Fold:
Amino acid sequence: SGAEAFSFERLRYFSADAVVLATEHELSLQLVPRLLDAGYSVVDMSGAFRLKDPQLYQAWYGFEHTAPAVLGEAVYGLPEFRAEAIASARIVANPGCYATAAVLPLIPLYKADAIDPGCTVVVDGKSGVSGAGRQPKPETHFCEVNENISAYSVLQHRHTPEMVAQLPGATFDRFGPNITRYLKYDNTSDAGPYFGTLGPG
Structure:
């Protein structure tokens, strides 16, 4: 019992068919191609395979993407809209939390051309303080966040390109997720309200 160091030997010992990675983006980038080559199916919880354009990774994640072929194969793991592709995929890129909450209600509106193409869509997302990670920081201390709200990564949150990619017709200049962080007693995240202009009809 307890945690064990990752090793391919242990995977072979357990005769695993699939691997779920909950690792840092850069580590997933290294492990996923090796796991696929070894015959495993992979669900990756990091952002390393969510975007199709490898050039976006340097700007939004701060690293160079070194596995563009795998990036092209990865299926975005939103089962409400990708169930068939997920079922047969070797690599599933698990969506980000904010992206999931943002795109689920918006995809049908974009597909139906119900969003006025001239408007800017704003998603006002909020996260419990646990969304900031385990590393203690001055801005996540209780006295800083209790009964308070603070914006971070405004107009540059790393889930932005992921959201834009999933919304047919959305563009970076017409989609503005505003991510804020505040203390919630249930430590959950939510996205909304949503601001935009509906098209005619």
Notes: The longest helix spans residues 97-111. DSSP finds eight helices and eight strands in the chain. Helices lie at 8-13, 25-37, 56-60, 68-73, 79-87, 97-111, 142-145, 160-166. The mean pLDDT is 81.
